[in-house]
Amino acid sequence: MDWKKYLEKNSIKLILMGALAAVVGLAIAGGGIAYADKASFCSSCHSMKYVAATWQVSNHRQFTCGDCHLPQENIVEKLIVKNQTGMNDTYHEFLRDYPDTIKVSAKGRAIIERNCLRCHAHTVANTFMSTGGQSCTKCHRGMIHNQIVIKEGVHVE
Questions:
Q1: To which H or E segment does residue 151 belong?
Q2: pLDDT tens for each residue of 11-32
């Protein structure tokens, strides 16, 4: 194999330009992914204004929407779920057919539960919650987004 033709000046320039383009592309993609996790992006939709406002005054306002609502164990799974939920949200936002009270899907609830336990594992370690199968959001669902919880026929904020 004749390596001289691969090491010509023009070939090296093309390789370096390709590598630079790849680095710039990855930086732009990474920045876009990070921005799409933030409340400023999520709350840009009409249907999320109330959700973002209630999060803003919660004890969890230091976390991004993605910290709670997207899988954190694996970047590939996170990107797949972000893409799926983003397309679904965009579709419903475009049609303006969101219900007055937005409900989390079963898949979304499972992701939220895992993320609650990821951060609060030490809190639940010595409680009945540690046995598994329990739901953080059953009792604490109003903590972040100020949803009304109905408990024994009484509305609790």
A1: strand 149-151
A2: 788 888 999 999 999 999 888 8
Q: 150 — phi, psi (to 5°)?
A: -100, 120
136: number of Cβ within 10 Å: 19
Sorted by where each starts, the structural domains of the chain and their CATH numbers stand as: 37-156 (1.10.3820.10)
Helix (H) or strand (E) holding 2: none
pTM given for the model: 0.69
Phi-psi region of 132 (alpha: psi -120 to 50; beta: other; left: phi over 0): left
- pLDDT tens across 25-59, in order? 999 988 888 888 888 888 887 777 778 888 888 88
Which amino acid type is present at position 97? D
Q: Which two tokens stand for residue 21?
A: 């383009």
